[in-house]
Here is the input.
Amino acid sequence: MSNNEYTPPKPDGAPAPDAAPATDAAQAGAATDPSQKLADLEARHAEVSDAYLRAKAEAENTRRRAEEEVSKARKFAIEGFADSLLPVKDSLEAAIAMPNATPEQMREGVHATLRQLSSALERNKVIEISPAAGTKFDPHQHQAISVVPGTQQEANTVVAVLQKGYLIADRVLRPALVTVAGA
Here is the structure.
């Protein structure tokens, strides 16, 4: 029995019979309060654990989906480029199928096929590197095959292009093979 609780005495002066149960009820309430708190904390823990597991699963699913998309992108990255080259192949096959074509017809067909190929390369951001004579030598885009001494050109400039180079976006796919003026 706490100091704040008052139990009136019985008329005969004996203590009230419900005095002890009141003390038990107070203790039971106190015992229920921590057990209720424990139950609340366990429920909250279950909620947080569930939220964590769901977030973890969602992150894993997102990572897996991203990996699948990257895999598909790598697998089919060349699809657009290959699609743009198919007309070139068709033109070459058509030329082969014409055994009685005149040299003029063949030349005309080759030029048309070259235009198709150039167009396909441009659509796929493959850009030609063909420096004009006198252009400053750029070791990032040109590969010097030989140095030509005694030219009228300034030293370290392109004299002639032996083979064109190519860029894909801003990356050198193949440097242009050039001869360079010597000192």
